[in-house]
Amino acid sequence: MEKPLYKINNMRNKISYSIQAITLIGLIGSCNFSTQNKLPILGNRVAEEKMIDGKLVVDTIYQTIPAFSLLNQDSVVVNNETVKGKIYVADFFFTSCPTICPVMKKEMIRVHEKFKGNNQVVILSHTIDPDFDTLAVLRDYANRLGADGKQWMFLWGERKQVYELAEKGYYASAAVDSTEPGGFIHSGGFILVDKQQRVRGIYDGTSTADVDKLMGDMEVLLKEE
Amino acid sequence: MRVIITLFIVSFFVACMEAPQVNMQQVAHGQELYETHCVNCHQQDGKGIARIVPPLLNADYIVQNRNLLPQIIRNGMHQQIVVNGVMYQQKMPGNSQLTDAELTALVNFVEFRFAKSTQLLSADSVKLLLRK
What we know:
Shape of chain B: globular
CATH architecture of the largest domain in chain A: 3-Layer(aba) Sandwich
Oligomer: heterodimer
CATH superfamily of the largest domain in chain A: Glutaredoxin
Order of helices and strands of chain B: HHHHHEEHH
Helix content of chain B: 40-55%
Shape of chain A: globular
CATH architecture of chain B: Orthogonal Bundle
Largest sheet of chain A: 7 strands, mixed
CATH topology of the largest domain in chain A: Glutaredoxin
Helix content of chain A: 25-40%
Strand content of chain A: 25-35%
Radius of gyration of chain B: 17 Å
Order of helices and strands of chain A: HEEEEEHEHEHEEEEH
CATH class of chain B: Mainly Alpha
Distance between the termini of chain B: 55 Å
Low-confidence stretches of chain B: none
Strand content of chain B: under 5%
Number of strands of chain B: 2
Number of domains of chain B: 1
């Protein structure tokens, strides 16, 4: 008589385990689901206390892209106003780069092709070699990549300004390094910025899989208010 | 059906016999070197990148400038060139670290894979071309 009882208990245990497992999978699934549909906001945040209608309200202030003013390949000023209310992808490169830039540009061509004509999407490629990459060089480079120069722009600015913007605004690195092929060292990231100029993701611009994820996240961001 | 099979087998043997001078071991070595040093710009498929990096695949420049290839890989390319009717002006960095034997393997891989050539260069002729 003991055996069947043991079997029943065993089965109850099994069912209970299954229910737990299913619940767990469900929970994990819902977590994944929510992260897929809401992108994180990167950078520092500060809580700010405000008085609204006589009540103390705590508001979270997120880090945004600092004020910048650069020239594009057609000598047009590009600043925070230019990208206001749009999402954009930023990267840092130089045209004579013999290492990772060609691959980054190949990947950026894919992003450009996918969102071509969408006036809510901008791509800003910043040169980190303003001496060699004159506006004429950038204009030719844009043309050769098939960029129209309005949606995908190539930006020029003083070295100091661009390097500071890279590090403080986009969490990217850019530096002169004579030991590196080409004379510069820089990160190969594609930085995704939302309509409120907050960084929402950093992707490896040399990885096809990462750039696929970027393009998916851009779709998510476009649906945000 | 039997005729087709016979033709297929015959053509297979003829194709093999036509290329006795291709050293596949060397081509494989060349492929490794290509994937280490060249693929970033010229790409796995040899199609290059937009109008920035010229293609190697079916490039008229390669057929017309065969003897320059070892020099170009070693010293780089700094002037404008026209490949299949398109002008390119991006500088190509040279690689002075590659030995004569490695250059031979690399050039032969490029010729074999992208120019469909079976007339490959010997190590001695590469040495001569580099001395020019």
